[in-house]
Amino acid sequence: MSRAPLIVVLALIALGSVFVALLCGSLSLTTSQVIEAIVKPVPGVVDDVVWKLRLPRVLAAFACGGLLATSGVLLQVLLRNPLADPYILGISGGTALGALGAVLLGAGVVGGNLAALAGALSAIAIVFALSFRAGDWNLHRLLLTGVVLSAGFTALISLLLTLAPQAQIRGMLFWLMGDLSHAHSSGAAWLVLVLVVSIFTVCSGSLNALSLGALKARALGVAVGGLQSALYFGAALATVAAVLLGGSIGFVGIMVPHALRLAGVNDHRWLLPASALVGGSFVTLADTFARTVWAPQQLPVGVFTALLGVPVLLFLLSRRP
Length: 321
Prior knowledge:
By secondary structure, the protein is mainly alpha-helical. It has one domain: ABC transporter involved in vitamin B12 uptake, BtuC. A two-stranded antiparallel ribbon has the order 1-2. A hairpin with a 2-residue loop joins β1 and β2. α1 runs parallel beside α13, α4 packs antiparallel against α5 and α12 packs across α13. The mean pLDDT is 87.
């Protein structure tokens, strides 16, 4: 059955979340001021707040949420595990270790991003080398390797926090809990989001078959090894892009796909774009709470993704027969 009307509704909700995020902040703006700033910008305080401060952060928040939710969908298909999320394979741990290590060494923004990317690529290479053998995946080894790497990276991150100067600890902790205050350029993240969602939506029939099991997928003519490799690297790319942009924002990748499945969206042709829209809207609204509820002080967005997401998912689970 077509879910096109649902996608339209979710797109409207996404636009609404973006508008609410532009409306809310330390400086109170009216609806007419925001609309006028978007449609007919006039140099001034309102125009600067909307275009230079809020819109870049809102776009970054939406991209982060969409990437994490999309990565969660792909990993849950790959591992056939409902607990799979973007952080289960150690990729985010490698990214965080590289970024925080660069901060501790006094590297600038470019150096920090390069170090984070190097950490992520190292984690990807280790997991791939240990899990892909003889032209096929060993999914049990993949999961165990990811869990072990995550534990190791967590220990090293704790060591860095212990050794870090007092003045740097707060910023490092904020980044670990999700921090979008420095996310000003999200063009690369949006490109990754559009590419990953588009490519795997086209392959949705194969994803539906693989979700039934590798044997059934092979019987239906799916090239399982190639598809599993594509799923792994697609999820890894989406996770890296999200973590580089906003730090470690938890709970999105596991909550959003499950919420949509509990709502009856199981076909990946609709689940992937729906997850991107819901994940983007969710993180956008969570970040709006994070920067307004205790204004002018800003709180980590990851705290609010958990506080808002847990009761929603528990409510949906309670209604499941």
